C-alpha cells in the first residue's frame, strides 16, 4: 500500500465506518466494470457513504488529496461511464436507496439517487401515479444513473427523457459544496443547470437527491402489433404514424433476426416470417385510446402492412411486450457474443439507414439484429460475433463504428440513451468539431477545474481526436478537422 | 465622438455598408429600451449585419476592441434584457428574417433568428403543420428572442417551452466563432448546450439560426369557459383537471378585474359577475377531443363551477380567446400604468398564493388583476398604479417584489417566461444562494471569459446581493446569506 492510499483511507475513516470503505482486491473486484464489461479497471478503493454530509466529506477529502472520484449507481451503464479510475475513489451511492417523500397533490416524489427506477413507479401505484421514463434495465438501474445518462426507454416518445421528468436535483460539487438545481415549479431563472447535469455522466457533480415528476396512470392501454414484408416499409410506417399527429406511448421496431430470436425465447406469438414488426402502444382515456387506435389503423391501411393485431386484454399486451423486453437476452442465445450499439437518427432517415446497416452487415460478414425505439429514431443494432474467433471482436467494433458514423452522416448522433463513457470517445471526434469539444471542456472546467470528477470519460481530449485523424462530419459533409470552417 | 468610437465605426465600415451602422442620436433613440420602458439607455452604436459572416466579423471586432455587445431581436422583451450598454454595440438581428428551409417530412423548419414567431406557423399552414410555443407577443416577437428568454405561451402546458421545440442552433461566440449546437435527431451527446443557450438572455452567444420542430395541426379544437364564484375554487379546479390525467392544450385563468376589463374591451361574452374564469382548450383527433371534453366536464361537476360553456364553432372559440389575448391592453385602459409581473409556482399552491396576492393588494392599496397560464402555475399579476401620483411607482415595485418573494417561498421561481434581464436582478439574490450564483458566473466565463456579451444582465454580481442584504429563501425557509448551509 503506497503512503498516499494509506493516508486517504485514514482520512476517510475519520467519518466513515470501516464497512463503508472497501480496499481489499477481493472486495474491489465487483466494481471493476459496469454493464460494458469489455472495459475493466480496479479502483484505488471504494467508498460507500450513507448521508449527504458524508458524501460532502468524501468529496472534500478527495479534493484535498487531488484524487479522482467516479460515481456509481447500480452499475448497469452500457458505455463504461462508471469504469473506475486506477488512482481514484469509486463512490458507490448504493446506500442512498430511500424514497424520501411522495407528494400526491403536486405529483412529485423526492428520492435518493440509488433508488431503482421501477421502485418509484411501484411505490406510487397506490396513488394512481407512475414515473414515466422506463429504460430496459428499469428493474435494476438507479435514478441517479438515469440522470447521469439522461436515460430514455420505450415510453419516452410520449413522455420525454429523464430530463423532462425531473424538477430538481441536489448536487455535490467537486469541492464538496451542496447545490440546489431546479425548483418545484415549471421553470427556473438563470442558466439551465438542470438540463446541463442530465447526461453529464458524473463529470460535473454528484447527484444526492432527485425530485421526479409523477404522472396519473392512464385509464386504458392498448398495443398494436403490425407486421411488414420489408424493413423499409416498417420504417416508413413509423414516420406516417407520427406525421398523422398521433403520439403513441411507445413505438418499437424489431427486424426478422430479432423477431425470431425473441419468439423462440418468449413465445410472444410474433409472426416469425415477417421482415419487421412494429409494436405501437396507445394510452390515455378509454374513448381517446379507442379513437387513436382507429386512427393508427387508418394510417396502416395505406402502409402495406401484412398483419395488424390489437391486444386489448392486459395478458395479451404483456405477452407482446415480453418478446420485446427479452429480445436482448434472446439474441444473446443466438451467438456467443453480441455488441449493442446506440445511435439516434432523424426519423425520416429510418428506411435508408436500416438498408445501409444490412449492407454493412454483409460487408463485414457479421449478422446484425435490430430492436429499437423507432418512434424516436433511436437505433439499437445488435452485432453478433464470436470473441473466440480471431479478429471477430475487432471486426464487430469496426462495424459498430461504421454504423455510428452513418448515424452522424444523416444528421443523427452517436448515442441515444447509453451515453459516451469510454466506449464512444473516438466517435465524439466524428460528431463534434474541435471548437465544440473545446466548449464542452470549458463547461467541465466551470464545475470541476481540476478535473477530478470521472476523468477521461464522455468528452475526448482534443489531441486524442487529432491523433486519431478523425473525420468530423458536419451536415452530411465529411471534413478533416484542419479544413473546418473555423 | 471619442477616438475609440470613431475607430470602432471605421473597423465596422470595412465590411458593413453604411446603412447597417447607426451612430446618430436620432437613429439610436428607437433602440434605447425594449418592452420594459422603465429602463432606458442609448447604445454607443447599432450594428445591423445581414449575414452570418458579418455577425462573426462584428463579434471579432468588438472582441478586439473589448466592447460589450447586446443582441436584440424584435425588442418585445419585458425584463429589459435587450437594454443597450452605454459603451457597447447594440447588435440588431432584424435583417435575419428569412425562413431558410421547411422539411415537411421531418417536421422541422430552419429559420433565421429575426423571423417572427407567428410567421413560422403561418408559413407551414399549407403543410398542415404549426410551431407550438405562442407567447402573447407572437405577432411581433422573434424566434431568436424566444430562444434567449425560453418563451412559453398559452399552449406550452401541452407542447412545452421553446427549449422543447428547438432541435438545433447555430451560435456565434463572443470571439466570433460559429458553433453548431444540438442536431437533427432527438438527443445529442456531450453536455446539453442546447438547453443551456435557451433562456440565457444573450449572455452566452449570438443565435444566428434556429431549427424548430413543427407539429401536425390538430384535427379538432374546443374551448371550455368555466366560471367560479371564488378565485380559490378556480385554482383548485386547475389542479383537479391536471390530476385527472388530462393535459389541455391551454388552461388559462382570469380573475374578476381582468374579466371585466377584457369583456368591456373585447365583448367576448365573459360572465362579468364571476370571481374567476378558466379557459380550457382541448385539441387532438375529433373523437379524442370529444372524449376529453367529457372528462373535463366530469371533473368540473365536482368543482362547484357556476357555469360551464363549450365553444365548438371556430368563431365562438376565437371570441373567447380574443378576450384573453386582449386582457393586457384592456387592463391598460383601467389605469394610467400597470406593471406586469411573471412568477411561477407549484400548481398546488395556486389557491393559497392567489389569496395572499389579494391580501398584499389591500396592504399596498393598489389593485391587482390576474391573467395567467394557470395550468403551468405561471402567474402574471398586473399591478395597477398611476406613475403621476408621488410614490405609486415605488409602491408598485415594492408590491411586485413581495409577490415574487411569495412565489419563491412556496417553492416557485421569480420568472416564468419573461426572463430576469435588469428587472429582476435583486430577486435573483432571493432565489439563489451565493454558491449557486457563483456557478452561474462560472458557466458565463466558460463561454465569455471577458464578459462582453450583454454585461450586467440576468445574473447579479455577488457583491450586489451582499449589499442588498437580501434574504435567500430556501425550501420555504428564510436564511441570511451568511447563515447559509455552505
Automatic annotation (TrEMBL), chains A, B:
| EC number annotated for this UniProt entry | 1.1.3.15
Question: Could you tell me the superkingdom of the organism this chain comes from?
Answer: Bacteria
The UniProt entry, under PROSITE patterns, shows:
FAD_PCMH (PS51387)
> What are the entry keywords?
FAD, Flavoprotein, Oxidoreductase
Domain FAD-binding PCMH-type span(s) in chain numbering: 39-217
> Which InterPro entries does its entry note?
FAD-bd_oxidored_4_C, FAD-bd_PCMH, FAD-bd_PCMH-like_sf, FAD-bd_PCMH_sub2, FAD-linked_Oxase-like_C, FAD-linked_OxidoTrans_Type4, Oxid_FAD_bind_N, Vanillyl_alc_oxidase_C-sub2
Q: Which GO terms describe its molecular function?
A: (S)-2-hydroxy-acid oxidase activity; FAD binding
Required co-factor(s) are: FAD
Protein name stated in the entry: Glycolate oxidase
Q: Which organism is it from?
A: Novimethylophilus kurashikiensis
Classification lineage: Bacteria, Pseudomonadati, Pseudomonadota, Betaproteobacteria, Nitrosomonadales
What is the gene name?
glcD
Amino acid at each position: 500500500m503506497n503512503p498516499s492510499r494509506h493516508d486517504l483511507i485514514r482520512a476517510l475513516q475519520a467519518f466513515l465506518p470501516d464497512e463503508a470503505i472497501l480496499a481489499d482486491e477481493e472486495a474491489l473486484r465487483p466494481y471493476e466494470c459496469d454493464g460494458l464489461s469489455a472495459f475493466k479497471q480496479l479502483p484505488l478503493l471504494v467508498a460507500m457513504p450513507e448521508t449527504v454530509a458524508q458524501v460532502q466529506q468524501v468529496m472534500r477529502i478527495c479534493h484535498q488529496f487531488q484524487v479522482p472520484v467516479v460515481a456509481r449507481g447500480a452499475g448497469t451503464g452500457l458505455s463504461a461511464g462508471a469504469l473506475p479510475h486506477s488512482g481514484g475513489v469509486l463512490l458507490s451511492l448504493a446506500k442512498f436507496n430511500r424514497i424520501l417523500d411522495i407528494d400526491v397533490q403536486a405529483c412529485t416524489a423526492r428520492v435518493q439517487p440509488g433508488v431503482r427506477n421501477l421502485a418509484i413507479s411501484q411505490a406510487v401505484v397506490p396513488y394512481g401515479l407512475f414515473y414515466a421514463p422506463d429504460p430496459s434495465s428499469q428493474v435494476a438501474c438507479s435514478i441517479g444513473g438515469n440522470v447521469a445518462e439522461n436515460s430514455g426507454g420505450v415510453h419516452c416518445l410520449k413522455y420525454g427523457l429523464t430530463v423532462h421528468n425531473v424538477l430538481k436535483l441536489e448536487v455535490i460539487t467537486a469541492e464538496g459544496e451542496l447545490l440546489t438545481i431546479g425548483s418545484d415549479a415549471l421553470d427556473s431563472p438563470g442558466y439551465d443547470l438542470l438540463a446541463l447535469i442530465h447526461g453529464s455522466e458524473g463529470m460535473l457533480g454528484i447527484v444526492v437527491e432527485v425530485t421526479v415528476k409523477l404522472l396519473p396512470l392512464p385509464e386504458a392501454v392498448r398495443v398494436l402489433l403490425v407486421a411488414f414484408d420489408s424493413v423499409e416499409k416498417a420504417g416508413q410506417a413509423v414516420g406516417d404514424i407520427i406525421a398523422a399527429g398521433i403520439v403513441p406511448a411507445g413505438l418499437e421496431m424489431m427486424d426478422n433476426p430479432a423477431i425470431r430470436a425473441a419468439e423462440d425465447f418468449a413465445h410472444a406469438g410474433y409472426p416469425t416470417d415477417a421482415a419487421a414488426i412494429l409494436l405501437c402502444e396507445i394510452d390515455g382515456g378509454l374513448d381517446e385510446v379507442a379513437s387513436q387506435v382507429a386512427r393508427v389503423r387508418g394510417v396502416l391501411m395505406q402502409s402495406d402492412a401484412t398483419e395488424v393485431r390489437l391486444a386489448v386484454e392486459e395478458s395479451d399486451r404483456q405477452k407482446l411486450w415480453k418478446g420485446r423486453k427479452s429480445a436482448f437476452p434472446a439474441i444473446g442465445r443466438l451467438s456467443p457474443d453480441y455488441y449493442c450499439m446506440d445511435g439516434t437518427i432523424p426519423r425520416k432517415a429510418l428506411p435508408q439507414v436500416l438498408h445501409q446497416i444490412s449492407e454493412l452487415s454483409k460487408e463485414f460478414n457479421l449478422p446484425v439484429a435490430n430492436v429499437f425505439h423507432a418512434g424516436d429514431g433511436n437505433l439499437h443494432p445488435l452485432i453478433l460475433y464470436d470473441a473466440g474467433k480471431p479478429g471477430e471482436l475487432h471486426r464487430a467494433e469496426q462495424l459498430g463504428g461504421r454504423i455510428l458514423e452513418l448515424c452522424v452522416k444523416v444528421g443523427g448522433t452517436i448515442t441515444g440513451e447509453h451515453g459516451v463513457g469510454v466506449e464512444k470517445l473516438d466517435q465524439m471526434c466524428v460528431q463534434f468539431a474541435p471548437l465544440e469539444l473545446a466548449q464542452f471542456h470549458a463547461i467541465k472546467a466551470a464545475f470541476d477545474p481540476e478535473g477530478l470528477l470521472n476523468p477521461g470519460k464522455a468528452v475526448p481530449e482534443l489531441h486524442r481526436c487529432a491523433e486519431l485523424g478523425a473525420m468530423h462530419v458536419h451536415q452530411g459533409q465529411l471534413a478533416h478537422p484542419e479544413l473546418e470552417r473555423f
